[in-house]
Amino acid sequence: MRIDKEALIGLQKQLVHCYRVNYYPPRSKPDQVLGASPHSDNSTITILMQDNDVCGLHIKHSNEWVPVNPIPNSLVVIVSDVVEIWSNGKYKSIEHRAVANYNKARISYATFLIPHNEVEIELLDHMINPKTKQQIYKKVKYGEYLRSSMKRKMEGKAHINMAKVGTLA
To answer: From the UniProt record, which GO molecular function terms apply (predicted)?
Structure first.
């Protein structure tokens, strides 16, 4: 996005970290196992560490679900909704889901980097296309965006629509 580290932190005002551990038991009893429904994260970025030998993260690419096979000693960085708004849609938040494995339990560790609730999330000026001048997303307070997305729960990327120009909050 052509933005330096200090400016990025400044955009977030107070950087908030949320940490979550997810446990998915084996899916030998499918009716008893929940994964995570398709969604995009309402954070800035998500940093995920997966089990080294159990695949369960899938991302949506070209309307197909693609497994993200774990790579030992590595992290997965997921672009989230705030970056999509800042970049005017140039960098898309990633729709993803978690599925349980039939034979093995799976654990993942996620860190979410999020702005403070009072921070106004808006398009960065240099991300506007100089030819079209089209603005896809409007300015929105992060706390309002978070509350709206939590009401929708996990409905794919439907919750980011509330930040689009021409929609009601």
So the answer is: metal ion binding
